[in-house]
Amino acid sequence: MNNYKPIVLVTLVIAAFFLLLDKNHSEYFDKVEADYKNGLAVNLSGNVRKDSVAGMLLERGYIDNAAEANFIADALVAGVYEGKELDNLYSLRKNVWKVSASAVDSLENSSLQQRCLSSRSALWQGDNEVDSLLRVSDLNLPSQTDLESGEFAIDVRVTRKDSSAGYFSRLLKRDKKAVGGTLVCLRSHYITTVAADTVHDLPSYRRVEDDIIAFAMTDENGEASFKGLNGDLSYSVLPVACGYEFGSPKGTIAGSMREK
Question: Which one, of 248, 246, 211, lies nearest residue 127 by Cα?
Answer without folding.
Answer: 211
